[in-house]
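Exercise 7. Given the encoded structure of a 251-residue chain, write a plausible sequence.
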C-alpha cells in the first residue's frame, strides 16, 4: 500500500510540541476476510496529556469495533511531561493557547471541552505532569487489564474535555469509579510505591523505543513487531496497513 498521506502529527517527547512527521510507505495487499484473522495484538505508546492521542481515540474506537474480541491493545505511557518538562499548561505547552488545539480538532474531528479551554485561556492553573495519570493507568492495567484502553481514553477526556488538573490525585478515583472501581480502594492504591515504579518502567520503555512522538502504534506478531503508525493516522489508512501485515502473515 502506498501511503497517500505523507505526514502525520504527534506529540514530541523532548519538546511537548505537536508537529508533522513522515510515515513509512508500505506495499499494497489484498484484504483478508475477518473470519480468517487470528487475535491481533497492538502496542499503543500514548500519554494521557498528549493532545494528538486525544484525537486518536476515535480511530482506536473504530478499530476496536471492527476487530472486536480479536483485538488486544497494550497501552504504554510515554511520559510526555516529566521532570523539567512538567509545569503549568501555558508555561510548558504555550502552543496550546497559541492555537495548536485547533489543528487537532481540524484533522481529527475531536473537540476540546470548555472545562479545558476555560483554564488555558483563563488562569492557566492546570499543571501538566504525566506521572499521576500514568500511575492511575498502571493500577487499572494490573487490576482490570481488560479495561486498560477504555481507562486510558477516559483519562484523555478527563483532561481535554472536563479540564481535570492532572496533579490533583483525588480526581482519578472518580474516573476509576466510572469503570466500576471502588473509589476508596483506588485512592489507597494511588499512594503505593509499586505503581510509581511501574509507571517509571513504562516511561523507560518509550525512551528506549525508536519513537520520539506519540501516538505510536505497533503490531506485535510473535517475536516480531511492525510499526503501523507514529503520529495521528486516519482509521482508513491504519486499517489498510494492519490488513496488509495480516495478509503477509497468512502467506
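Solution.
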Amino acid at each position: 500500500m502506498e501511503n497517500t498521506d505523507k505526514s502525520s502529527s504527534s506529540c514530541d517527547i523532548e519538546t511537548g510540541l505537536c508537529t508533522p512527521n513522515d510515515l513509512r510507505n508500505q506495499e499494497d495487499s489484498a484484504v483478508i476476510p475477518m473470519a480468517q484473522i487470528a487475535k491481533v495484538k497492538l502496542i499503543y505508546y500514548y500519554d494521557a496529556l498528549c493532545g494528538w492521542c486525544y484525537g486518536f481515540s476515535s480511530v482506536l474506537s473504530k478499530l476496536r469495533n471492527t476487530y472486536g474480541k480479536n483485538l488486544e491493545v497494550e497501552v504504554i505511557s510515554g511520559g510526555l511531561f516529566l521532570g523539567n518538562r512538567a509545569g503549568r499548561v501555558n508555561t510548558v505547552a504555550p502552543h496550546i493557547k497559541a492555537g495548536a488545539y485547533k489543528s487537532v480538532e481540524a484533522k481529527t474531528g475531536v473537540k476540546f471541552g470548555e472545562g479545558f479551554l476555560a483554564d488555558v485561556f483563563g488562569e492557566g492553573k492546570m499543571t501538566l505532569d504525566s506521572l499521576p495519570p500514568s500511575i492511575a493507568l498502571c493500577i487499572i492495567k494490573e487490576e482490570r487489564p481488560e479495561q486498560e484502553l477504555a481507562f486510558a481514553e477516559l483519562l484523555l477526556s478527563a483532561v481535554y474535555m472536563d479540564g481535570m488538573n492532572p496533579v490533583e490525585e483525588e480526581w482519578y478515583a472518580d474516573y476509576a469509579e466510572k469503570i466500576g472501581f471502588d473509589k476508596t480502594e483506588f485512592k489507597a492504591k494511588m499512594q503505593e510505591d509499586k505503581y510509581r515504579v511501574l509507571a517509571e518502567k513504562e516511561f523507560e520503555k518509550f525512551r528506549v523505543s525508536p519513537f520520539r512522538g506519540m501516538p505510536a502504534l505497533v503490531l506485535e506478531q510473535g517475536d516480531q513487531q511492525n510499526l503501523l503508525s507514529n503520529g495521528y493516522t486516519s482509521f482508513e489508512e491504519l486499517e489498510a496497513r494492519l490488513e496488509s501485515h495480516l495478509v503477509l502473515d497468512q502467506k
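Remark. The longest strand covers residues 40-46. Students should compare their own answers with the one above.
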